[in-house]
Each structure stands twice: as structure tokens, then as C-alpha cells.
Automatic annotation (TrEMBL):
<feature type="signal peptide">
    <location>
        <begin position="1"/>
        <end position="24"/>
    </location>
</feature>
<feature type="region of interest" description="Disordered">
    <location>
        <begin position="113"/>
        <end position="154"/>
    </location>
</feature>
<keyword id="KW-0732">Signal</keyword>
<feature type="compositionally biased region" description="Polar residues">
    <location>
        <begin position="113"/>
        <end position="125"/>
    </location>
</feature>
<feature type="compositionally biased region" description="Gly residues">
    <location>
        <begin position="126"/>
        <end position="141"/>
    </location>
</feature>
<protein>
    <submittedName>
        <fullName>Uncharacterized protein</fullName>
    </submittedName>
</protein>
């Protein structure tokens, strides 16, 4: 009886795993449906309201995301399991652009980029010295140093990302209907909110809220186009991170995709 029980239990786990894999494969690369925002959203960089379930999984950018709205705001929630992509976002920002005319044209779009860091901040993310190949605890008396393990490299990168996010205090904006500024504080009076975090499990999470009015949208608006773009790091910002297991060229290369969205109505 015990043997049959464990066989049945194993079969249940096998079926559940197969279903999860199938669901992951079915998930679109670009969100296909409108979604009314869950109640009580707090833009705090914590994956609470989303139940770890997202509307799309974009392999080009390594981003899982959900775009949704209520009567006042447009919300973006992003999860990233890839440290290289997370490092690029922390250092060069994730740009969210909206073209209310439905055109996939970046130049004519309203855009918001967070984090918006100075080049000096980005080139010195706190603990990055370990990633740049300086002598560390792995060195011995003869001046040689052992190579960090894959797990140690990941921990170094996660620490760099956390350090950068701790210094992120501004949002770069372009074309916003309610402001002529190009740079605003995270703590602004426009109602624009953005926060990101790096968890202990090395999973990056990002939230943004934008008033519909600031985008020139309302409940009668037609379908609009949007872009998610992970900006590439500058040569200065990317310098040395190849030594911690990251591809230098990939760090400097932007990646993006476009989608279409129509505001959900309650």
C-alpha cells in the first residue's frame, strides 16, 4: 500500500509539472488581452498583487510582464530571472513608451525610463570592485587568486544590482502631457510611480504606474502602441562586468519589443 501511495504521488507531481510546462509554453511573447487592474495596487517593487502570474513572457528581452489599467492609471509589472538583463535595467533603465496613435514609432512616443542614473553612479555600483577582478578573498600569499564559482558570480551581480537600485531616485520622462520636465523625482506630484527590487532569490521585480491623463488617454481612447526597451549600458557602465561572467557586448546592446493595448473597462 505504501508503494502504491508513493507511485500515485509521483504520478500527480509528474502531471502537475507537465501542465505547468505546457502553460509556460502557451504564454504569449506579447500580451494579447486587456486587463483591469487588481484592487489595492501598491507600487513598492514587491510581487504581491500579481500572484507571480504574468500576461506574457518575452524571450527576446527575458521579461515576464503584465500591462493593466483602472479608471485613473496604467500599470506595468515586470519580472526578470536573467541577471544580465536585470543588470542592464538597473544601470541603464527600462524605458516604457506609449504611442497613443497606435504607431510603433519611438520618436513620436511618450516615454518614461526608470531607473535614471548618472554615468558616475552607474560606473561605480558599490561592490562592483569584486566583479572587476581585483584581488579578493580567493587570493593566496603567492598573489594568485582562484576563480569565483558560478554561484559566487551571481551573488556579486545581485549585490551590484541592489546597490544601483538603492541609488535610483529619478525617472526620465519625455513628452508627458502634464509636465515639461525631462527628469523627475521618484517622489513627484505628477502621480508617476516606479520602484524596482532585487530579491534574495536573484529575481528582479519592477513596477510602474502612470496617470492616464499624463499619457493623453481616457476610457474612450482607441488601441495604442507601447514599447518595452531595456537600454544598453555605456562602455563606462559596462566596463569590468564581463569579468564576473557577463557578456560585454550584450550589456551594451539594447533589446526591445512592441505591443498593442486597449484600455480595459470595468
Amino acid at each position: 500500500m505504501t508503494r502504491k501511495f508513493y507511485q500515485s504521488l509521483f504520478l500527480c507531481f509528474l502531471i502537475a509539472g507537465t501542465q505547468l510546462s505546457a502553460n509556460a509554453q502557451k504564454q504569449p511573447s506579447v500580451q494579447e488581452n486587456s486587463m483591469y487592474a487588481p484592487q489595492g495596487i501598491r507600487i513598492d517593487g514587491k510581487n504581491k498583487e500579481w500572484n507571480n502570474t504574468f500576461q506574457a513572457n518575452n524571450k527576446r528581452t527575458n521579461l515576464q510582464y503584465t500591462l493593466c489599467n483602472d479608471d485613473k492609471n496604467l500599470y506595468l509589472a515586470v519580472k526578470c530571472n536573467d541577471l544580465l538583463s536585470s543588470r542592464k535595467i538597473a544601470g541603464a533603465g527600462l524605458s516604457f513608451s506609449v504611442n497613443i496613435n497606435g504607431k510603433k514609432d519611438e520618436k513620436e512616443s511618450i516615454s518614461l525610463t526608470y531607473p535614471a542614473l548618472s554615468s558616475s553612479t552607474n560606473s561605480n555600483p558599490g561592490r562592483g570592485g569584486q566583479a572587476r577582478g581585483g584581488r579578493g578573498q580567493g587570493g593566496n600569499r603567492m598573489g594568485t587568486k582562484s576563480q569565483p564559482s558560478s554561484k559566487e558570480k551571481d551573488s556579486i551581480q545581485a549585490a551590484n544590482i541592489k546597490s544601483l537600485l538603492a541609488q535610483a531616485k529619478e525617472i526620465q520622462i519625455k513628452g508627458l502631457k502634464t509636465s515639461t520636465d525631462s527628469l523627475i523625482s521618484m517622489y513627484n506630484e505628477l502621480g508617476v510611480k516606479a520602484v524596482a527590487s532585487m530579491g534574495e532569490d536573484h529575481v528582479f521585480f519592477y513596477e510602474m504606474a502612470i496617470p492616464l491623463e499624463a499619457l493623453g488617454l481616457n476610457q474612450n481612447s482607441k488601441e495604442f502602441a507601447y514599447q518595452l526597451k531595456i537600454n544598453g549600458l555605456s562602455e563606462r557602465g559596462a566596463g569590468g562586468f564581463g569579468g564576473a561572467g557577463m557578456n560585454f557586448e550584450e550589456l551594451m546592446s539594447p533589446t526591445d519589443f512592441w505591443g498593442k493595448y486597449t484600455l480595459a473597462r470595468k
